[in-house]
Amino acid sequence: MDIQNTNFLRDHSLKYIEMALRTDSIERVTNPDGYGKRTGDCGDTVEFFLTRNNNILETISFDVHGCLNTTACCNTVATFAKGKPIESAWDITPERVKKFLETLPEDHFHCAELAVGALYLALADLIRNKTRCIK
């Protein structure tokens, strides 16, 4: 994000600013029930860590190495998924993330795709791990 050519507070919605600056979901978890990691073409890397209680996503945390746009997208994904049934997390889309944030720059839509993609990888891992536990 080019700080010289933008006024962060003026150019972004309150939802975007909150999601870009929140830190309560940034955490690396040892032995999560589900883990997913993606690196985008831009070089940003996102890792999601999921824990479940029965069929509910109990905790969603992430580690991000990237721009504020990616952090805003990761926090939005975590907010959408936490406390919800595992199946409903598959309904989170990059378009839904963008709509919620209101002011995600068009040229950073890939940040929403990166965050959602890492979540999907973590969900797939969680389901694989859950299936192994049942057998």
**What topology, given as strand order, has the largest sheet?**
1-2-3
Count of all domains:
1
Principal-axes shape call: elongated
Task: Please name the CATH topology.
Answer: Sufe protein. Chain: A
Low-confidence stretches: none
* Total helical elements: 6
Reading off the top of the CATH hierarchy, the class is best stated as: Alpha Beta
Number of strands: 3
Q: Major sheet: size, sense and barrel closure?
A: 3 strands, antiparallel
CATH architecture: Alpha-Beta Complex
**Global mean pLDDT:** 93
Give a written overview of the molecule.
With 135 residues, this protein is α+β, with helices and mostly antiparallel strands. The protein has a single domain, classed as Sufe protein. Chain: A, CATH 3.90.1010. Helix content is 47%, strand content 19%. It is built from 6 helices and 3 strands. Strands 1-2-3 form a 3-stranded antiparallel β-sheet. Strand 2 and strand 3 form a beta hairpin. Helix 5 crosses helix 6. The chain is elongated, with a radius of gyration of 15 Å. The protein starts with 7 loop residues before the first helix and ends with a helix. The model has no long low-confidence stretch (mean pLDDT 93).
